[in-house]
Amino acid sequence: MTKGNTTPEQKRLNADLAVITIVSFAVLGILMAFQEPIYGIIRNADIHVLPRTLIAALCQFGLAGLGISIVSVYRKEPFGSHGLQRKGTLLSVALCVACFIPYIIFSLSTDQIKSYLPFQSVWMTEEALSSGFPVNAATMLVIATAWGFFEGFNYVVISDKINRRFPSKNRWLNWGAIICALMCILIHGMVGVTPEGILEMLTVMIIIYGMLMVRTFTGNAWGCVFIFVFLWNAF
Q: How many other CB atoms sit within 10 Å of the CB of residue 10?
């Protein structure tokens, strides 16, 4: 990482990253403090699935999405400035899916894949799908927005800002992709200690590092969003 006097742009990026971090940890602290009543509401089948999903989605958005949204609004940075554009979308999606292949191979070899369904690891998905229209469509849209779009795009914005703050002359030494990959491993508790755990950790790092490298090379971030909508919670 580069050293020297801090420029106004670097100070601005420092502030952006600080806001994203503080917001995420503040929301995490609130969720931990009120975990029991929040989970009690979300898991209460007597309450309609849509409001329960909205509450859970707001919690998820607070962890991954609120911080980058605050910064984007304050800085007047449209999401399109972080790669949400039509040009290069197909290439971005194809290359990001390729980054997911090692994880699929690992999961198949360890008999971890039983079925495929986007967001099947999200608590409300099966209940939402079993509801009638238009409740099922509205609930799945909420799930796809929080656990799909914003979780994937959150990594993109953070990576972009890290790379602008700490540019590297080596295109493969992408600090944003590296830090986000490590962050994902820690957040999801995937630090491997057994041979199998280490392999899983490496395949997940390939996904995050790879998709963010694809975003850098293609200039398109839709592949990252595609991963989290159709693959991340799908097996």
A: 15
